[in-house]
Amino acid sequence: FIPFITCGDPDLETTEDVVLAAVANGADLVELGIPFSDPTAEGPVIQAANLRALKQNDSVTAEAVFDLVRRLRRDRKVTVPLVFMTYANVVFSYGAERFISACSEIGIDGLILPDIPYEEKEEFGPLCKKYDVDLISFIAPTSGNRIGQIAAEAEGFIYVVSSMGVTGVRSKIQTDIAAVIKAVRQNTDIPVAVGFGIAAPEQAREVAGAADGVIVGSAIIKLLEEHGKDAPEYVGEYVRRMKEAII
Q1: Residue 185: how many CB atoms within 10 A of its CB?
Q2: What pTM, to 2 d.p., does this model score?
Q3: Structure confidence by residue, pLDDT tens digits, 186-210
Q4: Is omega for the bond preceding 232 within 30 degrees of 0, making it cis?
Q5: 27 with 243: CB under 8 angstroms?
Q6: How many Å apart are CA 150 and CA 146, to the nearest integer?
Q7: What DSSP designation does 83 have?
Q8: Are 222 and 11 in contact (CB under 8 A)?
Q9: Strand, coil or helix: what is 108?
Q10: Cβ of 98: how many Cβ atoms within 10 Å?
Q11: Residue 5: strand pairing partners
């Protein structure tokens, strides 16, 4: 089970406690979102979380998020894989090599850049290889005959997008996930995690029947929006229920 958490919403201290609660309740990998002003892959829930984080007097910077990860790795003893999800402009503005080398230094295992298509991954791929940070590949319902090529070169895990459009809770997953994963399996044996639209334990159980992992973002961000600094308890309970559903 892979929870997505927007760093700095409502503040970085709460983010730290939410990560710890998620891991304590069974999260196998945590996806940390570095806020960006124009998160094009995100629906309204996560867009709003990005804006809330960025309104904090510019305190939620890449450096501040790096320090958060250092604390999680060192002081709080988080050992599960951690990956960043952000946008190319965040990496470019920081300096691509400086950013990716910092990821390696602080204990980030992978990088997800949803606005970088497979055909343009060479802008970051060599640097990720140099610093042993997996550049996570996306496969969407429209990937079609590109699935084999993307899967064959994938690293870490493959992020299969369950539905067209942006992130957000959906009542039903329309894509034939099993067929997409079958096509992936013909080209690689690295893990496949499915995200976009999953919120309920029943959905997670269904997806886990075909996939190796389930990614949930918007449902967790809604708990943060509703409960603020008290969210860690609620997120922990949610992660526990979702993990139990997919075991």
Answers
A1: 13
A2: 0.91
A3: 999 999 999 988 999 999 999 999 9
A4: no
A5: yes
A6: 6
A7: E
A8: no
A9: coil
A10: 12
A11: 32
